[in-house]
Automatic annotation (TrEMBL):
Occurrences of domain YCII-related (ranges): 1-114
Protein's UniProt name: YCII-related domain-containing protein
Coiled-coil region: none
InterPro entries, alphabetized: Dimeric_a/b-barrel, YCII
Alphabetized PANTHER family for the sequence: BLL7171 PROTEIN, BLL7171 PROTEIN-RELATED
Length: 122
């Protein structure tokens, strides 16, 4: 089953890291991805730019409403994601424990809901 691991942290706190600390964290993240790939659990993932670069889209009455910035003010911001393959939630949790930014914020783990095409044959 697929699990989406959403990585959150406080951007203001992360901006306080030294360049060496930031580089070290990024190296840890790349090593984590390498390990998850080698074990066959990593499907996809990417870090995100800061929320300052975000745009939010809402569709209302068939009209696009576009605003700069994230959807909501929060203590922690979405920083990236890992798409993992795991047997069950327990294994997904065990794998997500390896995600380095978890020690700065949190990782939300959610099962992916598979959409099934409708069978219109009679």
């Amino acid at each position: 089953m697929k699990y989406l691991c959403l990585v959150y942290y406080d951007e203001k706190k992360m901006q306080q890291l030294s360049q060496q600390e930031w580089d070290s964290l990024n190296q840890e993240c790349m090593a984590c991805v390498d390990g998850l790939t080698e074990s066959g659990h990593f499907l996809d993932g990417a870090p995100l730019l800061s929320t300052e670069t975000a745009t939010t889209l809402r569709m209302r009455d068939n009209k696009a409403l576009v605003t700069d910035g994230p959807f909501a003010e929060t203590k922690e911001q979405l920083a990236g994601f890992y798409m993992l393959e795991a047997r069950d939630m327990n294994e997904a949790i065990r794998l997500a424990e390896k995600i380095p930014p978890a020690r700065y914020g949190c990782v939300e783990i959610r099962p992916v809901r598979e959409l099934m095409p409708q069978n219109n044959s009679r």
